[in-house]
Task: structure prediction
Amino acid sequence: MNIKHTLFFSAILAGSSLIANAQAKPQDTEFYTPVPPVVTPGKTNADAPSDAIVLFDGKNLDQWTMTDNRGTPASWTVADAILTVNKRSGNIETVKSFGNYQLHIEWRVPANITGEGQARGNSGVFLASLGKGDAGYELQVLDSYNNKTYVNGQAGSIYKQFVPLVNVSKAPGEWQTYDVVWIAPTFNDDTTVKTPARVTVFHNGVLVQNNVTLLGPTQYIGQASYTNAKFGPAPIKLQAHGDRSEPLSFRNIWVREL
Ligand code: MG
Result:
């Protein structure tokens, strides 16, 4: 074998080892960093995990303020470890603002509820409060157990935008849960929307809003849009709806920033 042959066969050997090296191994797609932070789960999936910010644990409203007069302590009723709407005092919202988050909140329509349609156990969770009154993005709270109304305004709806996938309401007097993933909208410098808000909602553990893309903040009359909607992190707001039915209660409210 002359030098040319030697070089030729060496090249073939080198080539085949390259091919062998190029063959994928399981380890090629197995990563060890970054390591996800350790979180201790709650006793049940309804209990706050270790990295949650507890917004209401039955004791006080230190995390809440009046929406129309921020800085004023929230004046809803705390008794027997639950929070009950004070319709006369108005909406309340968190002192702290949030961007993207996971929220758990429990609510109960009173067993003796009266009224019908939107005037029967109406409240709401504004996923991002945009200031006074009902400005913001409302996840509807309503007695929808046996109570007809427009379907994009029933419990589990993103009010006047998205109908819940199913009606999984419990009877008045029973506690119900919402578990929400909120992805806040982002905006360009000129206030036009860059990425719209998205939301996923589980009602009593059942998926009712599957990563829906919101059209803008809730609009009572007319089409929602992001016109001049630019804002950053925002409080989470609870609605004191101005109807005459008996007021709702809330408990066990916690949030995880994402
Ligand atoms: Mg409402």
Notes: The helical segments are 3-22. The mean pLDDT is 92. The longest helix spans residues 3-22. Residues 122-124, 138, 140-141, 239, 241 surround magnesium ion (CB under 6 Å).
